[in-house]
Amino acid sequence: MAATQVASLSGSVKLETEGNRKNTTLICAPLMAESIDQLLIEMRKAKSSGADLVEIRLDYLKSFSPDHDLQVLIKDCHLPTLFTYRPQWEGGRYDGDENKRLDTLRLAMELGADYVDVELQVAEEFNKSIHGKKPEKFKLVVSSHNYNNTPSVEDLGNLVAKIQATGADIVKIATTASDITDVARIFQTIVHSQVPIIGLVMGERGLISRVLSAKFGGYLTFGTHETVAPPGEPTIKDLLNLYNFRSIGTETKVYGVISNPVSHSKSPFLYNEAFKSVGFNGVYLHLLVDNIAKFLQVYSSSDFAGFSCGIPHKEAAVKCCDEVDPVAGSIEAVNCIIRRQGDGKLFGYNTDYVGAITAIEDGLRGLHNVGTTTISPLASKLFVVIGAGGAGKALAYGAKEKGARVVIANRTHGRAKALADRVGGHAVSLAELDSFHPEDGMILANTTSVGMQPNFEETPVSKEALRYYSLVFDAVYTPKITRLLREAEECGVATVSGLEMFIGQAYGHFERFTGLPAPKKLFRQIMGQ
To answer: 172 catalytic, yes or no?
Structure first.
């Protein structure tokens, strides 16, 4: 298919893409190398990774001859160039003479740089030094960095006006997120800006600002061309392949997993690929949320259409919903929230119990070579649940519904007893679990985060105790084989991975998100990778 140029505010940068690109937001690769030779290598890597332009951080160079080196960098770069020479007082590395720094940036402009970034504090001085004369296709970026917080919408608006008044072609504002709701103020600022604007929020809670800049009209976003990115910063590969960045537009609906921690979740890999396969206009994100009620209140527009709820928000999510499915109400935990497009009301569901119980039943049937019958293989089994949180409640409810006798083990005995009383079961402490052996052939289900990456060597119960069980299930799926499952296998006990629960519960999420049947075969292919 012939490449098409997308007309936009992107100045002289031509966006080459196949197919129908839905946004004009550029992807910029920041290059931080200590030598010119290394920078040239990084430039080539950035181009091959799919970047639209590169930011050359001159303040990282250990030795630098502006007259010669700038010509080399501009001449040999096959992408548009943005030159930044960040001083220490604005979070960079340069600690030399200020006049020399600004002279270098002015020289970069004169030699053919596409963009130069100067800090708000010195922007007027820089503009005076060039007497308002800029090359025709050159763009001046004037930036402000706040490493402490994200100001109010009013203060951000005033900051945009202040930056614009310096003669900036492009406004850049970078703030810091103490809460994911801080990012909403940057989105609001971008949407209402009358000038080209780069708005980014630093930190893991600010990751969505990098991805959704394409939806809300940011001039560019940053993505590293390296294979691994720091927390809160995506790789270019992830922007293009995981988040389908080129396909994000103003009408794209936003979904995500609300959890803390959240970076371990494989949900974005599953849903984004599935959305793409069926042509659904949505993007699914990691959402590091501290307070779910605050999050849902701030992100209340129809753009934010649905969420998966993870640790520790499943119980709190119930109170945040306008209506709750009867099953979720009985469990007192929600793992799926849908925002109704007509009136914005939130509906809560629980698909954990179906995903987990079905996986455990299938495991037992395989163990005993029994086909599907009307009677569950869990009937009359002693079913031990570790954990009394949202997932624990779902498993306890599901096991009871299938006729199992339920035992709850939890770090806090009071919570274990409260859940056990609700399902007509029995409560024990975690300490008691190692010697708990009323009968052989029990079922064990861990619903806590014990053993989840990066704490691979943790396990909720001793290996010696596992020999009394016929099957062990672990809701943790990163890693796929946890220490608990590995030691159960070593004891000759059948195991079911949390990946089975994850895939099973995801069917319901996908269908509620999209209104389409879940591509079950595709789900397994994606997670198999």
So the answer is: yes
- 60 with 227: CB under 8 angstroms? no
Helix (H, G, I), strand (E, B) or coil at 250: coil
Report pTM: 0.92
What residue has token string 């209402």?
192
Q: How far is CA 465 from CA 441, 444, 468, 488, in A?
A: 12, 11, 6, 9
Catalytic-labelled residue, pool 145, 162, 417, 480: 145
3-state class of 55 per DSSP?
strand
Residue labelled with tokens 């609906």: 253
Distances (CA, A) of 235 to 126, 183, 227, 318, 507: 32, 19, 7, 35, 28
**52-67 mean pLDDT:** 98
- What's the whole-number mean pLDDT along residues 83-87? 98
Quick check: is 145 catalytic? yes
* 314 is annotated as an active-site residue: yes
Which pLDDT tens digit goes with each residue over 284-295?
999 999 999 999
Catalytic residue among 314, 413, 426, 509: 314
Nearest to 115, CA basis, from 174, 33, 198, 54: 54
